[in-house]
Predict the 3D structure of the following.
Amino acid sequence: MRAAIVCAISAVLAVLSVLPAAAQSPTLDSVKKRGQLVCGVNTGLAGFAAPDDRGNWVGIDVDFCRAVAAAIFRDGTKVRFVPLNAKERFTALQSREVDILSRNTTWTMSRDTSLGLNFSGILYFDGQAFMVRRALGLKSANELKGASICVQSGTTNELNLADFFATRGLTYRPVVYERLVEVLGAYASGRCDAFTTDSSQLIAERTRLPDPDAHEVLPDLISKEPLGPAVRQGDAVWSNIVRWTLFALINAEELGVTQASVEADRESSNPEIRRLLGTEGDYGKGIGLDRDWAVSVLKAVGNYGESFERNLGQGSPLKIARGRNALWKDGGLMYAPPVR
Amino acid sequence: MGDAFKRWLMRKPWIDAAYDPNVRAVAFQLLLVLALVLVAVEIVLNTAANLQKQNIASGFGFLARTAGFDISQSLVPYTSKSSYGQAFLVGLTNTLLVAVLGIVLATVLGFTLGIARGSPNWLASRLALAYVEVVRNVPLLLQLLVWYVAVLRALPAPQEALALPAGVFVDKRGLHLPRVTLESGGTLLLLALLVSVIGAVWLWRTGKRTREEETVERDPVRLAVWALVVLLPVLALMIAGKTVAYPVLERFNHEGGLSIEPEFLALLIGLSTYTAAFIAEIVRAGLAGVPKGQREAAAALGLSRRHALRFVILPQALRIIIPPLTNQYLNLTKNSSLAVAIGYPDLVSVFSGTVLNQTGQAVEVILITMAVYLAISLATALTMNWFNARTAWAER
């Protein structure tokens, strides 16, 4: 018995002494062992995460998952997508059902500090708006006094809606559903006068209505909705991998590195590009990845601008303008710290 | 010293006790309870420690924090400035409301159908049979969706609302009734209700009746009791100062009146029609369980079919009906949590839906929700057991 204990202890010590001191991440280890990244995404939101007609997941949130998978495995297809509704998402991340939550989720203080998770950055700067029937002839959300308003439960939208009407001293009738498809269905059938959620979602959901032109999104944005990926607290290396994958996408756009040019850009004369792509220095080491991890990321999904235009912008049916999601040097808010 | 201890140990009572099966049984039971308590404590401490380690908030302090969201229907005062605890109360009362009304409606409909099933009228019994077979064999969730999506959404928009008599409107947004507000007569009405209930019970208990009077329709005591229960409150309502606000169509909705949400209507109709099908079968079984001789004896005494059913068959059938009926009441209450599918703000939707998501405290919220359903079910079962004991055979 005693011999067995001594053996066990020495075995554990031996294993511990072999492990490298740098970049230890239980999440990264389990992802590598599994051979697949598990990513929590929306159950179906055009432009962010939705299955296409061949059953492949597409969208900017999905691209981000593929980018992280590419950073780890050099292969953007090694991802399993887990569709989650608003109510399930945080529990799924807390209980290790998913490795990342990339599901148009608003970064708020309470979520960042009391749910045992960390937001890794901002993938899309959004704001909450209202969609109404054009026939009502409304100019602003301030005219919605007494209206029935459809909203999804368990979202920041539900809270912003209450604040918006309470601060203006107006009454309204909330109609709350658990799933986005139920909210849209209720709005389409006339159960509600208005449908409120993040502006990008409204634009995406409008295309699914029988007669999109009969509906309009009101110009008022009633909240800040910074959407971004989240990971569990307590795994700093994993958090860094996710954060720097996002920064790599934004830096690549700023430096003009695209999906098509990335292979040739390895030999670029620009030192910033050479550092990003691992031709100079070894910045991947600190996050437990290869020297040229960013090359795999860009080969898999392209830079941030390419992913945006493909999923939300001019290359998509949604035709959302870059606006606040343009690079900082183009007057937007997208800004990433440098690789050096 | 050692010898004294040995002698004490060898004393007969101690050894007797150790070999006494009763003492052993109690000892082992105590050990088991102790082990269970230890396991429970370990589970609680372990969960708390793990939540702490993962930096997930825990504890019940969140109940006092501001909720920040609105709820479409509430029986207790509630605004977005209220606390999560008050949101819990809103969810709880909404669940109780739909459960209690559902039980009443399901019982009335179920008894009617069950009696119709045994009726000699071919059409009535076949219609009841068709109802039971169709309704109880389609999943409840589907039925709720049919009521909510197919039936209530097919109603007109508020601008083209159906106008019913007495200022009532029906549209996609629900049923809009005139709202009666009592101004000065509130206490008067309450007093009248109190007097009528106490008076009725007193009359029923002490009113002198002959045996024949008890079994015929023109029972003078029965008439007096009905008069007291119905007339007095109506009279009080008429005298009391009150205002009636009629629903008026404004820009988006009918305002001013009392609006009943379509989600509530769909859930109430769906739950009660579904449960009624099961109750009908229970009632049919109960009626069939009364020996044939009882029916024949009643007929031989000259009782009409109706009187035989009411005074001879049903009282005996109730003894068979009540235990399975309790199950149906419990099912209806628990099934009311399907409200979440059609957006009715019940306990599950408000508390273990929105509140859970806004606070992230899944363990506490789910524990409270489970405890509440357990408490409601146990209370229902206790009441029904008491009623069952009252109607059971007095064994001699």
Observations:
- The first helix of chain B runs from residue 2 to 9.
- The beta strands of chain B are 162-164, 168-171, 174-177, 179-182, 242-245, 248-249, 254-255, 258-260.
